């Protein structure tokens, strides 16, 4: 039973956040929302312990589809970075702002880029592509994410500065068009660089928040150097080119680890 304790712990943390937000904001939505996500993540952890190979993808589909279809399309909440800026400037501490605060800004101090491995609806689609392990050296194109980040901010500022009467409607359509553009760019980059996660590495503006915060993450994979035989198998299967055998915080691409556990599964010496 001890091996299932992490699943219980994960569920308890989400349940605590659910109850705190429900009571603080007097909104039942937060109770249902965080209990749903907590159930999906703890189910994934349970399946991982049972050595089910698609555990991560199941969590990704449960959470990603819920956020994209239910919150984004049915509830018409723009959950992309533009939605975060929009609600933040409106002073509305609601779904998109809370989502960014928990999953993408402060949460990564605890669980790193767990969002990117287990919940993102963009990567949920990109992970179906065939280039699960990068098949070409990494490019120095990370600067592109800062351009997209600034453009997203300028787009929302323009909504406030120009006389746009139906900004909420614009934000809903921006969510649909923005996601279609992300999927198109993500698939194009994946095929071009033969790497499913090329979009995450070079273009995604959310990484501007995720990278610095996950540098300090409490949850991170470490290498037991007394067991490691330097075979390099872990690094060959890593979708994010992380130098995982280096335990320092400054390890190469360390802020890109999405906690997918592929390296852990691959290690023949159980050193990770
Ligand atoms: S880097 Fe961006 S697109 Fe990639 S998984 Fe993270 S949030 Fe999603
Ligand atoms: S393979 Fe290992 S180092 Fe690479 S992203 Fe997954 S968990 Fe992180
Ligand atoms: S797969 Fe294991 S033994 Fe091989 S280099 Fe990685 S941590 Fe070391």
What topology emerges from the helices and strands here?
Layout: H1 5-25, H2 28-49, H3 55-74, H4 81-90, H5 95-105, H6 108-111, H7 114-118, H8 121-126, H9 144-161, H10 167-193, H11 198-202, H12 207-214, H13 233-237, H14 262-266
Helix pairs in contact: 1-2, 2-3, 4-5, 4-9
Fold and architecture overview:
This protein is an all-alpha fold and 272 residues long. It has helices at residues 5-25, 28-49, 55-74, 81-90, 95-105, 108-111, 114-118, 121-126, 144-161, 167-193, 198-202, 207-214, 233-237, 262-266. It has 2 domains: 76-218, no CATH class; 220-272, Alpha-Beta Plaits. It contains 14 helices and no strands. Helix 2 (28-49) runs antiparallel to helix 3 (55-74). The radius of gyration is 19 Å and the shape is globular. It starts with a helix and ends in a 6-residue tail after the last helix. The structure holds iron/sulfur cluster (3 copies).
Short summary:
With 272 residues, this protein is mostly helical. Helices cover 61% and strands 0% of the residues.
What proportion of the residues is helical, as a percent range? 55-70%
**Helix/sheet category:** mainly alpha
Low-confidence stretches: none
Counted by DSSP, the helix tally is 14
């Amino acid at each position: 039973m001890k091996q299932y304790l992490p699943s219980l712990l994960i569920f308890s943390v989400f349940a605590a956040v659910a109850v705190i937000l429900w009571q603080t904001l007097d909104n039942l939505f937060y109770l249902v929302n965080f209990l749903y996500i907590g159930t999906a993540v703890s189910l994934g952890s349970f399946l991982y312990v049972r050595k089910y190979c698609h555990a991560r993808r199941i969590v990704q589909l449960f959470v990603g589809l819920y956020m994209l279809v239910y919150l984004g399309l049915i509830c018409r909440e723009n959950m992309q970075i533009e939605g975060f800026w929009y609600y933040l400037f409106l002073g509305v501490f609601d779904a998109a702002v809370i989502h960014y605060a928990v999953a993408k800004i402060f949460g990564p101090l605890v669980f790193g880029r767990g969002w990117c491995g287990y919940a993102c609806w963009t990567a949920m689609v990109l992970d179906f592509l065939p280039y699960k392990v990068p098949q070409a050296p990494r490019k120095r194109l990370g600067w592109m994410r800062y351009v997209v980040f600034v453009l997203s901010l300028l787009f929302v500022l323009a909504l406030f500065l120009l006389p746009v009467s139906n900004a909420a409607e614009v934000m809903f359509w921006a969510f649909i068009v923005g996601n279609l553009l992300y999927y198109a760019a993500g698939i194009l980059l994946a095929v071009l660089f033969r790497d499913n996660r090329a979009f995450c590495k070079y273009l995604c503006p959310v990484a501007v928040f995720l990278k610095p915060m996950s540098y300090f993450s409490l949850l991170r994979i470490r290498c037991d150097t007394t067991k490691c035989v330097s075979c390099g198998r872990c690094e060959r299967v890593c979708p994010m080119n992380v130098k995982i055998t280096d335990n320092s915080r400054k390890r190469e691409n360390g802020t890109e680890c999405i906690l997918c556990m592929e390296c852990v599964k691959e290690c023949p010496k159980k050193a990770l």
